[in-house]
Design a protein that fits this description.
Blueprint lengths: L9 H14 L8 E4 L2 E4 H22 L9 H20 L3
Antiparallel strand pairs: 1-2
Helix pairs in contact: 2-3
């Protein structure tokens, strides 16, 4: 049995779907952490963790003399920071 629109135009249904999708990410909580009385956003901690993890990976590659495998560094390391920041956010702050 096909779905019917109940006489509504497709444009109206499309607008309703787009509005529903756009506000579905809203939540009832503020994505921040209380640190000594000050509130900091979650993404700030994730970026710091991504930078620290990237530095650890860089130092490990230097120690094993394999840093030439990640070339060009101007592209590789910022992408590694972004990837690790998003991975930390998914692991720790996904409610």
């Amino acid at each position: 049995m096909p779905l019917t629109t109940g006489g509504l135009p497709k444009r109206t249904i499309g607008a309703a779907v787009m509005a529903t999708v756009s506000i579905s990410g809203c939540a009832n909580y503020s994505p921040s952490l209380n640190v000594l009385g000050a509130y900091f956003p979650d993404w700030l901690f994730c970026i710091v963790a991504g930078v620290v993890l990237t530095i650890v990976i860089y130092l490990m590659l230097k120690r094993f003399e394999a840093d030439h495998l990640l070339a060009p560094p101007a592209v590789t390391y910022p992408m590694l920071v972004a990837f690790l920041s998003l991975a930390v956010w998914l692991m720790l702050f996904q409610y």
